[in-house]
Specification:
The complex is a heterodimer of chains A (149) and B (115). Chain A has 149 residues and is an alpha+beta fold. Chain A contains four helices and five strands; from the N terminus they run βααββαββα. The C terminus of chain A is likely disordered. The chains are: A alpha+beta (149), B alpha/beta (115).
């Protein structure tokens, strides 16, 4: 297994940043030694968090940045994505699995992040939102993935 | 890799072969325009072949749902063909596997639209 490391990137609020963050996540997760399925899940979670930060948080505002942090603690990959937007209340996110929401075009990003990672925390900054996503190196709580909303 | 598409007619069904990524930005926009174009030309029976789609994000899923409801509301039908494991898992997690009519054989899929 790779030794502990921490890197961070401060990027513009663009779709290019979303793609770059996804690529970085894929490389780091693979380097740590996650299997292909987990690498895909991690990169997708990062993409969804990045889209939320760029699109819903910073609203493509060129004056606002998105910060990505990747830390390998040895036991887990800890990823943070922070924006400088108007903030997100995680308690009012509609359940995309509810019958009335099933055919909605949007609203699945946070749900997928929670499904793909072992632990997810959403914290309000002033201003902005920070999403922390944790994937345990040794399998983690696989059952928790299905329970997450 | 961005999304590519090509459309062929099989027994009155518009079979759309998609490849690449359906994500926020180009892929999802291409899919939206493609379905609108088919509907405007009178093609109301659409089969989306996702066999070579390597990646779909939540925006892409949203676009598939939007295409499905648009076609249904227009009196047509839209079905999915040849899901990769990744896309299959995504649709299962999001409970959309029960919403879409999903096939793994083109001839069976085409026949299932009826006359």
């Amino acid at each position: 297994m790779s030794t502990a490391m921490r890197v961070s990137y401060r990027m513009d609020s663009t779709l290019e940043s979303v793609n770059q963050a996804e690529e970085v996540a894929t490389k780091i997760a693979a380097k740590i030694g996650f299997d292909e399925e987990d690498v895909n899940r991690i990169s997708m979670a990062v993409r969804e968090a990045a889209v939320n930060a760029v699109l819903h948080g910073n609203a493509y505002d060129p004056a606002k940045k998105v910060t990505f942090g990747f830390e390998n603690t040895g036991e887990a990959l800890v990823i943070t994505v922070s924006d400088e937007g108007k903030g997100l209340n995680p308690n009012v996110i509609p359940d995309p699995l509810a019958p009335e929401n099933l055919l909605k075009q949007s609203g699945r990003g946070i749900f997928l992040i929670r499904a793909f990672m072992d632990e997810v925390r959403i914290r309000s900054l002033e201003p902005g939102t920070e999403v922390t996503m944790i994937k345990n190196v040794y399998g983690g709580d696989a059952a928790g993935k299905e329970e997450s909303k | 890799m961005t999304m590519k598409s090509s459309t062929r007619q099989v027994d009155g069904i518009a079979v759309v072969d998609l490849s690449g990524r359906i994500t926020l930005g180009e892929g999802s926009v291409v899919l939206r325009d493609l379905v609108r174009d088919l509907l405007s030309k009178g093609s109301k029976k659409i089969l989306l072949n996702l066999g070579d789609v390597t990646y779909i994000d939540s925006s892409g899923i949203g676009e598939l749902v939007s295409a499905f409801t648009t076609v249904r509301n227009g009196g047509g039908d839209l079905k999915l063909l040849n899901l990769t494991k990744k896309v299959h898992d995504l649709l299962q997690i999001t409970k959309l596997y029960t919403v879409f009519d999903i096939k793994d054989d083109e001839a069976t899929a085409v026949a299932s639209f009826g006359k």
